[in-house]
Amino acid sequence: MALNVTRRAHLTNEQLYQDLSKVTEKIQQRRMRIAGHCIRHSEEPVCQLVLWQSVEGRISKGRKWLTYVENLLQDSGMANIDKLRACIGDCVNTYMHACMYVVPDWI
């Protein structure tokens, strides 16, 4: 018996897992939360490293790898890093809303 449902109930996966949140949503929320914690602690070295972007290197074939910063921008729906940094630093309520409730279209 899993999730208090027996095999005799004959539930579909959609019926069984409808109340659980998607794994991708949880990953987004946790990624946004850790970035917020790191950026708000300006005395720590990680504050400068979280939104750091390297422009060196060569472009490899195939699909481009997403960096941590690009993932944060996609998760939050922000246009650039400066807007994301301002959102995190200035208004914690707006940032928490972005962490908890904004889900991009590509999911």
From TrEMBL:
Protein name: Uncharacterized protein
Natural source organism: Octopus bimaculoides
